[in-house]
TrEMBL record:
<keyword id="KW-0576">Peroxisome</keyword>
<comment type="subunit">
    <text>Homodimer.</text>
</comment>
<dbReference type="InterPro" id="IPR016166">
    <property type="entry name" value="FAD-bd_PCMH"/>
</dbReference>
<dbReference type="GO" id="GO:0005506">
    <property type="term" value="F:iron ion binding"/>
</dbReference>
<dbReference type="Pfam" id="PF00941">
    <property type="entry name" value="FAD_binding_5"/>
</dbReference>
<dbReference type="InterPro" id="IPR016169">
    <property type="entry name" value="FAD-bd_PCMH_sub2"/>
</dbReference>
<dbReference type="InterPro" id="IPR036884">
    <property type="entry name" value="2Fe-2S-bd_dom_sf"/>
</dbReference>
<dbReference type="GO" id="GO:0016491">
    <property type="term" value="F:oxidoreductase activity"/>
</dbReference>
<dbReference type="GO" id="GO:0005777">
    <property type="term" value="C:peroxisome"/>
</dbReference>
<dbReference type="InterPro" id="IPR002888">
    <property type="entry name" value="2Fe-2S-bd"/>
</dbReference>
<dbReference type="InterPro" id="IPR002346">
    <property type="entry name" value="Mopterin_DH_FAD-bd"/>
</dbReference>
<protein>
    <submittedName>
        <fullName>Aldehyde oxidase 1</fullName>
    </submittedName>
</protein>
<keyword id="KW-0500">Molybdenum</keyword>
<dbReference type="Pfam" id="PF01799">
    <property type="entry name" value="Fer2_2"/>
</dbReference>
<dbReference type="InterPro" id="IPR016208">
    <property type="entry name" value="Ald_Oxase/xanthine_DH-like"/>
</dbReference>
<dbReference type="InterPro" id="IPR036318">
    <property type="entry name" value="FAD-bd_PCMH-like_sf"/>
</dbReference>
<feature type="domain" description="FAD-binding PCMH-type">
    <location>
        <begin position="154"/>
        <end position="333"/>
    </location>
</feature>
Length: 347
């Protein structure tokens, strides 16, 4: 997905791009693609139902040296359900007034973004076969997510890449190499930059056993759960289940950790494993879990699991093993949780 994919001068611009321009939020334009793609991500992932606070809290990782941020923030806040009327009044559609054309080139037909029944949707990586004139959609050519969940192996001779979908796949891949690296969101690359990867990389982002959550007595979180999904769950459970009311404090603390694009793909297990490989890594997640006596489930084989405490986890040998889930205990209402985030500046 690229900024040109969601809207361009030929097929018409996405509304996010248009509003940013109308509010004079582009100026030099160097940072604009990042702002647009971040807004597009949160807009779509929340089913286009956002409030102003969510929008304002979602751009800690975007920098602009020209605008002072106000026109960018104003443009994006017009998408909020509680948008200020003052901002909405600025949204007079110049295109409908025939002052400006929506596209930068001469169109032979009506612009796709103006047609309700258009099959080519902006935001999808669609293209046209020039010989048959047939529209080929992303769903037709993207094979990674469309398969029957059979493990994918790409062998480049000296290097191999595995796409695993089950724990059985993971241990099969491990068994076929002596040196490997697990990859999920791979956001750790921004913390500890890896230049020499092992010859085998195992993608575990879609491993079914590492996803989702359940509650027996404890809250069990899949190690492959993205941090943003974890935070949403914490907020929901803290309001619905008194035994897990302390999770609201977890949510507030994690809201100061990283930023939205990182939290969208960075996983619980990945964060904890960075703490394992580099004990000096300041993992807020590790400290939060340790504060309530959480435990980890480690798989030594597809059907062989072991439960360890957070501190025990730092000392065990994780060779040929993988974190499956994290178990958070319920706490009595007489317990109170409070944490403080020490950081150079507040995001």
């Amino acid at each position: 997905m690229t900024v040109e994919g969601i809207g361009n001068r030929t097929h018409g611009y996405h509304e996010i791009q248009s509003r940013l321009a109308k509010f004079n939020g582009t100026q030099c334009g160097y940072c604009t693609p990042g702002w647009v793609m971040n807004m597009y991500s949160i807009y779509e992932s929340n089913n286009k139902k956002l409030n102003s606070t969510q929008i304002e809290n979602s751009f800690a990782g975007n920098l602009c040296r020209c605008t002072g941020y106000r026109p960018i923030a104003d443009a994006f806040k017009t998408f909020a359900k509680d948008a200020d009327e003052r901002l909405l009044h600025k949204l007079a559609d110049l295109e409908d007034l025939a002052i400006l054309k929506p596209c930068g080139v001469k169109c032979n037909k009506k612009c796709p973004h103006k047609k309700k029944d258009e099959s080519v949707l902006l935001g999808k990586l669609n293209y046209s076969n020039q010989e048959t004139k047939e529209t080929i959609s992303e769903d037709d050519w993207c094979f990674l997510e469309k398969g029957n969940n059979k493990m994918i192996v790409i062998d480049c001779g000296t290097n191999k890449w595995f796409k695993a979908y089950t724990l059985v796949d993971v241990f099969k891949a491990i068994g076929r190499c002596s040196d490997y690296k697990f990859i999920a969101g791979n956001t750790g690359q921004g913390v500890f930059h890896v230049t020499n990867y092992p010859r085998t990389v195992i993608d575990i982002f879609n491993v079914a056993e590492l996803k989702g959550h359940s509650i027996d007595v404890n809250l069990i979180l899949g190690a492959g759960m993205p941090l943003s999904e974890m935070m949403e769950l914490f907020l929901k459970l803290s309001n619905e289940n008194a035994d897990f009311s302390y999770l609201k404090g977890f949510h507030e603390h994690m809201d100061l950790v990283a930023h939205v694009p990182v939290r969208n793909i960075g996983t619980i297990g990945g964060n904890l494993y960075m703490k394992y490989t580099t004990n000096d890594f300041q993992s807020d997640l590790f400290l939060l879990f340790e504060s309530v006596g959480a435990t980890l489930t480690i798989a030594e084989a597809p059907n062989k699991m072991k439960s360890v405490t957070m501190l025990e986890f730092l000392k065990i040998n994780m060779k040929n093993k993988i974190i499956v889930n994290i178990m958070l205990p319920p706490l009595s209402s007489c317990c109170s949780f409070k944490s403080y985030k020490i950081m150079p500046r507040s995001q």
